[in-house]
Amino acid sequence: MNEINLDQATANALIALPKVRANNEVSHYPGLGGHLTLPLISEDGHESFHLDIRRGGIDLVKGTYQNRAMQVVVLVRLDFGGAPHRNPDDEEVPTPHLHMYREGYGDKWAIPAPQEQFPHIQDIWITLQDFMHYCNIVNPPLIQRGIV
Question: How many domains does the chain have?
Fold first, then answer.
């Protein structure tokens, strides 16, 4: 996978950009071990993004929510229910943790997931709504909840 390096101002602008669903297709929230990638666009239609949803294979509350730009640039990723993360400076960050794009490092740095933005981390459906809000997805994809 090719790596695209953004300056921090561009990454921050992409994160802040209001995003909307790219179509009106209804998708099903993935079951255990499943994943789903949903297309997003900026409100003005000039930028494209993806929302990735990944579920753990055994643990009901393990997963990853990720917002990407330019196909491969991870802007924001929330990991929950899994192992701690080790930052490039060797600091261990417990789960749940939040990866934000950092110039020169991509998504290799994480911080503990902010409790204010993700207060219901044990409820993966509510956490998905919180994540979309955090990523400024103002008109989210149509996702049928099913059994989560």
Answer: 1
